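User: I'm curious whether this sequence folds into something compact or stays loose and floppy. Could you predict its structure so I can see for myself?
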Amino acid sequence: MKKNFLLCGSIGWCMEIIWTGLHSLLAGELTMMGKTSLLMFPIYGCASLINPVYKKISSAPVFVRGCIYTAGIFLVEYLCGSFLRFFHMCPWDYSDAPLNYKGLIRLDYAPVWFAAGLIFEKIVRKSS
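Assistant: Here's the prediction. I'll summarize afterward.
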Protein backbone atom coordinates (compact mmCIF):
# COMPACT_ATOMS: atom_id res chain seq x y z
CA MET A 1 0.00 0.00 0.00
CA LYS A 2 2.89 2.37 0.82
CA LYS A 3 4.42 1.75 -2.61
CA ASN A 4 1.09 2.49 -4.32
CA PHE A 5 0.60 5.63 -2.22
CA LEU A 6 3.99 6.96 -3.31
CA LEU A 7 3.36 5.95 -6.91
CA CYS A 8 -0.09 7.58 -7.02
CA GLY A 9 1.18 10.75 -5.35
CA SER A 10 3.99 11.05 -7.89
CA ILE A 11 1.81 10.30 -10.90
CA GLY A 12 -0.84 12.72 -9.66
CA TRP A 13 1.75 15.48 -9.40
CA CYS A 14 2.96 14.76 -12.94
CA MET A 15 -0.58 14.70 -14.32
CA GLU A 16 -1.37 18.02 -12.64
CA ILE A 17 1.77 19.65 -14.00
CA ILE A 18 0.89 18.47 -17.52
CA TRP A 19 -2.75 19.60 -17.09
CA THR A 20 -1.84 23.08 -15.80
CA GLY A 21 0.91 23.40 -18.41
CA LEU A 22 -1.60 22.71 -21.17
CA HIS A 23 -4.00 25.22 -19.63
CA SER A 24 -1.28 27.87 -19.66
CA LEU A 25 -0.62 27.10 -23.33
CA LEU A 26 -4.33 27.52 -24.11
CA ALA A 27 -4.16 30.87 -22.28
CA GLY A 28 -1.42 31.94 -24.71
CA GLU A 29 1.57 31.32 -22.45
CA LEU A 30 4.10 29.68 -24.72
CA THR A 31 6.24 28.69 -21.73
CA MET A 32 3.55 26.09 -20.87
CA MET A 33 4.34 26.60 -17.19
CA GLY A 34 2.73 23.84 -15.15
CA LYS A 35 2.38 23.93 -11.39
CA THR A 36 1.24 21.96 -8.38
CA SER A 37 1.50 22.15 -4.61
CA LEU A 38 3.32 19.97 -2.11
CA LEU A 39 -0.04 19.61 -0.38
CA MET A 40 -1.36 17.72 -3.40
CA PHE A 41 0.97 14.74 -2.97
CA PRO A 42 -0.95 13.07 -0.12
CA ILE A 43 -4.24 13.90 -1.81
CA TYR A 44 -3.13 12.18 -5.02
CA GLY A 45 -1.67 9.40 -2.90
CA CYS A 46 -5.24 8.62 -1.81
CA ALA A 47 -5.73 7.19 -5.30
CA SER A 48 -3.98 4.11 -3.91
CA LEU A 49 -7.37 3.32 -2.35
CA ILE A 50 -8.61 2.53 -5.86
CA ASN A 51 -7.07 -0.95 -5.68
CA PRO A 52 -9.20 -2.19 -2.74
CA VAL A 53 -12.25 -0.54 -4.30
CA TYR A 54 -11.46 -2.17 -7.64
CA LYS A 55 -11.28 -5.59 -5.99
CA LYS A 56 -14.88 -5.12 -4.82
CA ILE A 57 -16.25 -3.70 -8.08
CA SER A 58 -14.09 -5.47 -10.68
CA SER A 59 -17.06 -7.31 -12.17
CA ALA A 60 -18.93 -4.04 -12.76
CA PRO A 61 -18.90 -2.53 -16.26
CA VAL A 62 -16.23 0.08 -17.03
CA PHE A 63 -18.84 2.85 -17.07
CA VAL A 64 -20.04 1.98 -13.56
CA ARG A 65 -16.48 1.75 -12.21
CA GLY A 66 -15.62 5.10 -13.80
CA CYS A 67 -18.68 6.69 -12.20
CA ILE A 68 -17.74 5.27 -8.80
CA TYR A 69 -14.18 6.61 -9.14
CA THR A 70 -15.52 10.01 -10.25
CA ALA A 71 -17.80 10.23 -7.20
CA GLY A 72 -14.92 9.14 -4.94
CA ILE A 73 -12.55 11.71 -6.41
CA PHE A 74 -15.16 14.47 -6.03
CA LEU A 75 -15.70 13.41 -2.41
CA VAL A 76 -11.97 13.39 -1.59
CA GLU A 77 -11.45 16.70 -3.43
CA TYR A 78 -14.32 18.32 -1.54
CA LEU A 79 -13.32 16.98 1.88
CA CYS A 80 -9.63 17.78 1.46
CA GLY A 81 -10.42 21.20 0.02
CA SER A 82 -12.78 21.99 2.90
CA PHE A 83 -10.16 20.92 5.44
CA LEU A 84 -7.38 22.91 3.76
CA ARG A 85 -9.60 25.96 3.26
CA PHE A 86 -10.38 25.96 7.00
CA PHE A 87 -6.64 26.53 7.57
CA HIS A 88 -6.35 28.95 4.61
CA MET A 89 -4.12 26.45 2.80
CA CYS A 90 -6.27 25.22 -0.10
CA PRO A 91 -4.15 25.41 -3.28
CA TRP A 92 -7.17 25.55 -5.61
CA ASP A 93 -10.20 27.80 -5.92
CA TYR A 94 -12.76 27.11 -8.63
CA SER A 95 -15.09 29.93 -7.55
CA ASP A 96 -14.85 31.67 -10.93
CA ALA A 97 -15.33 28.47 -12.93
CA PRO A 98 -18.66 27.35 -14.29
CA LEU A 99 -20.36 24.41 -12.57
CA ASN A 100 -18.29 24.77 -9.40
CA TYR A 101 -19.55 23.73 -5.99
CA LYS A 102 -18.38 26.05 -3.21
CA GLY A 103 -15.22 26.69 -5.23
CA LEU A 104 -13.89 23.27 -4.25
CA ILE A 105 -15.05 20.98 -7.04
CA ARG A 106 -15.89 21.49 -10.70
CA LEU A 107 -18.63 19.30 -12.05
CA ASP A 108 -17.36 19.89 -15.59
CA TYR A 109 -14.23 17.95 -14.56
CA ALA A 110 -16.30 14.76 -14.21
CA PRO A 111 -14.99 13.32 -17.51
CA VAL A 112 -11.42 14.05 -16.41
CA TRP A 113 -11.92 12.30 -13.06
CA PHE A 114 -13.71 9.42 -14.81
CA ALA A 115 -10.67 8.86 -17.04
CA ALA A 116 -8.18 9.48 -14.23
CA GLY A 117 -9.88 6.88 -12.02
CA LEU A 118 -9.67 4.26 -14.76
CA ILE A 119 -6.03 5.17 -15.48
CA PHE A 120 -5.12 4.88 -11.80
CA GLU A 121 -7.02 1.59 -11.66
CA LYS A 122 -4.68 0.17 -14.32
CA ILE A 123 -1.56 1.66 -12.72
CA VAL A 124 -2.35 0.48 -9.20
CA ARG A 125 -3.38 -3.01 -10.35
CA LYS A 126 -0.14 -3.45 -12.32
CA SER A 127 2.05 -2.31 -9.44
CA SER A 128 0.37 -4.59 -6.87
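Summary: The beta strands are 100-101, 105-106. The chain has a mean pLDDT of 93.
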